[in-house]
Amino acid sequence: MRISFPLFATFLSFMFLTACEPKECCVNFPDEECPENIACTEVFVTVSVPFAFKNIQKEQIGYSTTKLFITGETILKHTYSNDQIDDESFAFLVNDNHLDQIRKMGTDIQYTLFDTSGKQILVETFTVAHDCCHVFKKSGKDILSI
Question: Which of 20, 50, 75, 129 could cross-link 138 (Cys pair, CB 3.0–4.6 Å)?
Answer without folding.
Answer: 129
